[in-house]
Design goal:
12 strands, alpha+beta, SH3 type barrels, 24% helix, 7-stranded mixed sheet, 30% strand, 2 domains, 5-stranded antiparallel sheet
Length: 237
Amino acid sequence: MIQFVTETGSTNADLAARQRAGEFLVEGDWLVADRQTAGRGRHGREWFDGLGNFMGSTLVHARPGDPAFPSLALAAGLALQQVIAVHVPAALLKWPNDVMAGTAKLAGILLERQGDAVLVGIGVNLVSAPQIPDRLTAALADFATAPDRDTFAASLARQFDIEIERWRNFGIAPIVARWLAAAHPQGTLLSVGEPGEEPLNGVFAGLTDDGALLLRLADGGTRAIHAGEVRFADPDR
């Protein structure tokens, strides 16, 4: 079921509040908003809420034998990239949670653990993209006719269900392989570091077996990155 609401603070926050209040949230159901007044990205950044874009959340419950929860980011990314690629064939994944058109961000995913579940919030620039001083953004409408928001929501919900079943039934290894095939190529220059930190620069060298980013450094060593802000690096720096 997809529940559509005209306006809310944050679809992730709404699902979290409902779960804390004792409501059992059905896995596979979605909450989708026309507008968000308090949407959040990583580090609490404001989540752009342009009317006509997709802003929605769902939830995945832990089950015995599930792969490690952090690998959900890869499965969610695959679902999102495949739905976007119908409209923007060149759409690529960037670790851990973005879908890109070249170096411009089209969509992002926010995963938040709550008890024995993970809330999965997704934002997609369907018809418009925010203007952000320090990064490039794009909308699907920049490349083709943007899909209707409700139609996009239904396609994403179906593909997300498929990817979660694959994640559960076949484990992380095929997810990692398919994620790599849908991502920017190995050798891409990357910069890793949280805001205010000195960035760690290197080249994309794939993923570990559990889905961490592998960064090859200038000294020839390789670093496994399990969390952090990842950007495409300036080749002239």
